[in-house]
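Pair request: fold both.
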Amino acid sequence: MAWSAVKYPTLIQMPGVNVSDSQVKPEGILSLQTIAMPADTNWSGDVFGGWIVSQMDLAGAIHAERFSKGRCATISINQMTFLVPVKVGDVISCYTQILKVGKTSIQMEIEVWDSHDDSRAPIRVTEGVFTFVAVDVKGNKRLIPEEAKQKFLESQAAQWLNEKKKKSQRS
């Protein structure tokens, strides 16, 4: 795991990593918030990356299950990028945003921010793209309800219109 040598909150572009330093606040829905404890650390005092990934998975599952009105399972994790270490006592906040909805699957961006207290701006810790599949009680794929997909499409259209309106106001 490569950490930036630059002090918070500056983000640097690392080779092969698509990270925008223009994002200064979390995007999406706050789906989970927890505190890093001593049991979650490695020998250096940093929180294990695996613990952070598990918190992201929980946050994504909460959002996916509420969206799809039922049980979901994680089927893939893509584009994980760790930006800064997390220490004991840091409060991490997981923000989720649905990117795509298929017949049975949901692709979601999940960001983790260190939002320890109000004395400083939140710091983006990591981000990744997770895919969940809707499953029934036997673990078989199930269809995502049409009303959930329609609501997602309507929100995407509204977001697109808002962005278009902002661009035209700037011109």
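--- second member of the pair ---
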Amino acid sequence: MADEAIPAMHDFFAEAENFLGTSLLRRIKILKFFTEKQEADLWQKKQGDLKNYLDNHIYLKDQFSLTGLIPPDYGFAFVEESGNVNTEKFIQKTRDWLIAQNSLFEKKFAFDSTCLHEGLYFFEGNMFEKTIFCEGWRFSLPSPFEAVQLKPAKGELLHFHAPQLRSEEHT
């Protein structure tokens, strides 16, 4: 999974950074301490499958030289491919772009202000062929979409397949 997800993440954020004109992804290495022998053993087992992402060497206690930290008894290694995304900046820049494109409505959603007619969706005088409705962490019941079994979730991804939406058409 990492072999697919990490390169896709790098590609996506390189394109997003270029498009939005800002830095979003910070690549870093993570120092992993092994506090038990089983952790070091598991690391060695995973190195084959994750060789592009995990340091292939476990450093011993006497090779540790960070001042002020106690050396780990069972060694340490590095996660080579890691980082973090400035999600707040990503959301704000994306939001700003959507507003500039007149594609973001900042209104309280009133389901009775909608109409679906001949495959088109109407909301407050605006017509849409396709709509993605996400309640996010503010999900609450009852929902206007009672026919859809919605469950509140935290930290999950929304996956959808839309072959007619190709990124090169929207950048």
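Observation on the second member. The helical segments are 2-20, 37-46, 87-100.
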